[in-house]
TrEMBL record:
Residues 44-290 form the PPM-type phosphatase domain. Pfam families: SpoIIE. This is Protein phosphatase. Belongs to the PP2C family. Its EC number is 3.1.3.16. SUPFAM superfamilies: PP2C-like. Keywords: Hydrolase, Magnesium, Manganese, Metal-binding, Protein phosphatase.
Length: 364
């Protein structure tokens, strides 16, 4: 990825009102409708980050965040061209994602309305103005009531939506030329949030899988390969972190394969450039799985599952929290489990005495 060398976007050059251009013009809007649904939805999320080996920048230049309360996720990729000026673009990306998470959290606490990812991006950009560098960014938010995924993207990060092991939707990227993406930054040639492309995927349904990633993912793996990973993975499970790890490691393997035909190689050939194999880069993957929630608490049985993780040096600690709404009564159960890898099956039913029973099976 190289830094853009374009006229400034903040009034020092011409203002572009056409879609997708640098400056104050608003980016294009894309809308995709999938299938009808009736339940309120929510996301459970997990991530995997594999920075490329660099002793000077062990944290890499990617960053991401997950805000479960706001049902919002995002990724950013600092533009590596800044290294020639002695600037760590990873600092800009990390600051941008940190401010984005704070903004999303603040919106959720002050309003019950769905989070607007464009507002999150704009405020994060403004709050990150004191940091030198530039970065791509892609932020997604779920409107639980409408069952709609709303996203904004600047640059060559992006996301895909999978249903029944098939890719239903893939976002487009923003590039001025090969390997020269749009990028947020306060530098000459930097873009502002208004240039972001906007996406809306309507009528998601339970079981849909959203895969969000930086160019380190998208340059090294095709949608069909992610489909293969999802098929091989036990899709009935809800460990999004594990699925993200599988996808990221598949992309890493491809990036190191000099003989693999990669998306990056194909784009290079279209641009008249010579490149063979994958592209070594930081790889960030965020996986979100769509689940159904029950709108009416007066239904006989309602269950909510959340998994809290604390990653230690050798093992992971899991705490399962089950909440039941049985008629007007409410009960909560905490079931700790120290298994490094957890599999669970959970079922509850109501018998003639109006009692709920629960079963939990854990296996290492």
């Amino acid at each position: 990825m190289i830094a853009a060398n374009k006229p400034p976007a903040f009034g020092l050059g011409p203002i572009h009102n056409c879609y997708g251009c640098c400056g104050y013009g608003r980016g294009p809007y894309h809308k995709k409708k999938l299938n009808s649904r009736t339940d309120q939805l929510h996301l459970i999320c997990g991530s995997c980050y594999l920075p490329k080996e660099n002793k000077e920048k062990p944290l890499g230049e990617d960053a991401h965040f997950i805000c479960h309360d706001a049902q919002t996720i995002g990724v950013a990729d600092g533009v590596g061209g800044w290294a020639r000026k002695g600037v760590d673009a990873g600092e800009y990306a990390r600051g941008l994602m940190n401010h984005a998470k704070k903004t999303a959290t603040g919106i959720t606490r002050s309003s019950a309305a769905a989070v607007d990812p464009r507002k999150v991006l704009s405020e994060a950009y403004a709050n990150n103005a004191g940091v030198q560098g530039s970065s791509t960014a892609c932020i997604l938010s779920l409107d639980k009531e409408r069952g709609t995924l709303h996203a904004v993207n600047v640059g060559d990060s992006g996301f895909m939506v999978f249903r029944d092991n098939m890719c239903f939707f893939k976002s487009s990227t923003q590039q001025r030329s090969f390997n020269c993406p749009y990028q947020l930054g306060n530098c000459v040639g930097g873009d502002c949030p208004e240039a972001a492309e906007e996406f809306e995927v309507e009528e998601l349904r339970p079981g849909d899988i959203i895969v969000l990633g930086t160019d380190g993912l998208l340059d090294n793996i095709f949608a069909s390969e992610i489909e293969e990973v999802i098929v091989a993975y036990d899709v009935s499970g809800q460990d999004c972190e594990e699925l993200a790890s599988y996808i990221a490691n598949r992309a890493l393997y491809n990036s190191l394969d000099k003989y693999n035909v990669s998306p990056f190689q194909m784009e290079a050939q279209k641009a008249g450039r010579e490149h063979v194999g994958g592209k070594i880069d930081d790889i960030t993957v965020v996986v979100a799985r769509v689940l159904a929630s029950t709108k009416n608490k007066n239904k006989n049985i309602y269950k909510k599952l959340s998994i809290e993780r604390n990653t230690g040096t050798t093992t992971r600690a899991y705490s399962l929290k089950f909440q039941f709404h049985i008629g007007e009564r409410h009960k909560a159960f905490d079931v700790p489990c120290q298994n490094a890898f957890l599999r669970y099956t959970f079922s509850c039913f109501r018998n003639s005495a109006n009692l709920a029973k629960r079963f939990l099976e854990c296996a290492t």
